[in-house]
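Recall the central idea of this unit: under ordinary conditions, the amino acid sequence of a chain determines the structure it adopts. In this exercise we apply that idea directly, starting from the sequence alone.
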Amino acid sequence: MFATRSLLLLSLIALVLGKPMARNMKLHESREGIPNGFSLRGAAQPDRTLKLRLALVQRNLAELERKLMDVSTPSSANYGKHLSKAEVQQLVSPTQDSVDTVNTWLKENDINAKTISATGDWLSFEVPVRKANDLFDADFSVYIHDETGAEAVRTLSYSIPAELQGHLDLVHPTVTFPNPRGLPPVFTAPIKAEAQNLTSRATIPSSCASIITPACLQAIYNIPSTRAIESSNKLAVTGYIEQYANKADLKTFLAKFRTDISSSTSFTLQTLDGGSNPQGSNQAGVEANLDIQYTVGVATGVSVYFISVGEDVQDGGLEGFLDTVNYVSSMDTPPNVMTTSYGQDESTMSPKLANNLCNAYARLGTQGVSILFASGDGGVSGSQSQSCSTFVPTFPSGCPFLTSVGATQGVNPESAAYFSSGGFSNYFGIPSYQSSAVSGYKQALGNTNSGKYNTTGRGFPDIATQGVNFEIAVGGRFGTVDGTSCSSPTLASIISLLNDRLIAAGRSPLGFLNPFLYSSGQSALNDITSGSNPGCGTNGFPAKAGWDPVTGLGTPDFNKLLKAVGL
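Accordingly, the structure predicted from this sequence is:
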């Protein structure tokens, strides 16, 4: 009897000692509800595999911002003294304590993660839904995009162990939802338009009032047609959602609109995430063709790279933005300019993820890369037109460490394009370089749109170019497209040609543009004072003298910009 009781006591002790201690979990991120346009289908299958990523906390982010402004502000003694890749990595890489703490936790949970960023701040791994729910006190469920039927497995909140606080920045994809409106521009039926004379730009061809071609942009913005000469000067165009740049269409486009250069002029392909660039005529992408034709066709002689991002490890809520910035950051000599014609509503993303990506763009800026993003095509209603009661800012345009490009239309004078997304971020505050410009606009605006936007948010766009009736070739046919996705490649071409002149003069490329644009560069811009960007049942924001959240500071003039940079 005694022996039996002793064995029972020992068994109970062993049971108590063997029972896992209650975890100390802390809520890390959550969202109030399901984003507009999505519906809950039900719980995700427990055995379904999730591809998750962990972002470790980076060091010295305040110092990163200080250095970015220091090398990007014309009045600074360090203007143009960009940092090397190694210097940036040394500045922001996570502490060894953070690396060890997170890796210990992963090992304790039998997770094999791999590092997917040059700075070591991003890790990736795969686990079944049941384990993800347990690890993060989450409820991963299947959500359906009502319009397209696309599925997304997400959770509305998640927690992390208390010991990971201060070391683990975020888990993705969790509370960030896919972009339901990341659609390429609409290609309008074939049109009839004649190529304009490229040798005489004293006046703007009359046809530019209805159709935009490279010659129109050269005339409107005084863009030279002479070839760039510096081989180190590179321009990168990013491509997502299976948008492919067709070389035959580029040849057709150049043969019609750039008879002064070889129609065989092309681009260099770079791929990641299983990206490709098939050349079947039926695979030609409207967006990719637009972006490539108006960089190769306007940035004469500049080396253009098309970065085609596949879907092997894309995470739905980023459209490959994260992988692209990590890829470019890993280069010893990144492109001088990178233009992206994609974006999404800021509200679909978690603030932590938006901030993490924004800091990644700051890293590239310190290395001398000009990051350009189209502001979106929904006016004040977001990336694409939608119903709303308060204004919808877009991302990444709200990030203060890149240049957001809006759209104009018409010539002599230009006016704001009605679809040009603009407004004020709900995630990012007003940067110092913009404070005076934003303050002046809000004072002139008065009580208009009161309560519909964040009065303390970073304003966008920063600048604009033409964005209506761009003629392109797709699948052997000519047609037109509209959108800020016309505008960003146009500005990228202008900045690339400026960089060519700067490099030829022994100077650094422009890098992060905004401190220059909002100071000495503003005199080189054409102020746009008419038009607005309606949405959400309002007339949106009106364009006014000075900066406005429709066309930014205005549109560029190449000759004036040359003077502004001291050439």
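Residues 1-21, 193-202 have pLDDT under 50 and may be disordered.
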